[in-house]
Design goal:
The longest helix has 23 residues. This protein has a 7-stranded mixed β-sheet, with helices on both faces. It contains 9 helices and 7 strands; from the N terminus they run αααββαβαβαβαββαα. 34% of the residues are buried. It is an alpha/beta fold. 45% of the residues lie in helices and 15% in strands.
């Protein structure tokens, strides 16, 4: 209970006290948007690392050398916990936004910082608006802004399983001409979702896989991209599960 209270208090104070700083960055962005982007990512990343510390999470990160640094990328990950975002952002080497569900846009102050790091808000119930968001994502990666998407579409409620990956998620990489970096997250639900509403100490593994370049694929291979990336993540998940959490099998 103590960890939950500490994280909740910290998050509320962080959002409220960050408003003046957000205003400074908003003004800065009028003349120097790239600097605003860098500082915004660093500031949000610092806040997330504080939450990780308060939650007592031990993080093992692998494969950061696989992330290209000379181009924007589309990170594609499995989704099991609210902490998937909290834990992953700091390991992206450049400005990176998340493709988030439209409901998060309603959260005061939080939405301001999400926009600052180029998050997009996807309405999965409205096909027309969903397509519009995907096209916005294509423009973002063309401008050099990386994006992270969870193509299962929602948080999976069952450990060690995967929901189908939506093929539309990969249009950002295909139309934007950027590589896909598979991002495998293991044991994030042990922090909160496995015993909600309590937050408990846990060890989490994040592994970034080798880039997948759709530009080199045939038409048939592109049609199977969702299954291909899902297969990479499943295999990596099972490997890390066996290595770091053999007692839970």
């Amino acid at each position: 209970m103590i960890r939950l209270i500490l994280v909740a208090i910290y998050l509320v104070l962080y959002l409220i006290l960050s408003l003046p700083f957000w205003l400074v960055l908003w003004i800065m962005g009028k003349k120097n948007p790239e600097r605003k982007d860098r500082i915004s990512k660093a500031f949000v990343g610092w806040g997330f690392r504080c939450i990780q510390h308060l939650a007592g999470t031990k993080l093992i990160v692998k494969g950061t050398e696989n992330i290209p640094t000379d181009t924007a990328v589309l990170y594609v990950g499995n989704h099991r916990s609210f902490f998937d975002v909290v834990l992953s952002l700091s390991y992206f080497p450049s400005t990176t936004g998340y493709v988030s569900k439209i409901e998060t846009k309603k959260v005061p102050i939080l939405r301001l910082w999400m926009k600052n790091i180029h998050c997009l808000f996807l309405d999965r119930q409205n096909i027309k608006e969903g397509l519009k968001t995907i096209l916005e994502g294509v423009e973002e990666v063309k401008k050099g802004i990386s994006l992270c998407i969870f193509p299962e579409g929602t948080r999976n409620k069952v450990n060690d399983s995967f929901l189908p990956f939506h093929e539309g998620s990969f249009k950002i990489a295909e139309k934007g001409g950027v590589p896909i970096v598979p991002m495998t997250l293991v044991n994030t639900a042990a922090i909160l979702e496995d015993h909600s509403p309590w937050i408990k100490k846990a060890t989490v593994v994040i592994e970034f896989g080798k880039p997948v370049d759709m530009k080199t694929m045939s038409r048939e291979e592109k049609k199977e991209i969702a299954a291909t990336v899902k297969g990479i993540i499943e295999e990596t998940y099972q490997k890390n599960k066996a290595e770091y959490f053999p007692e839970s099998k």
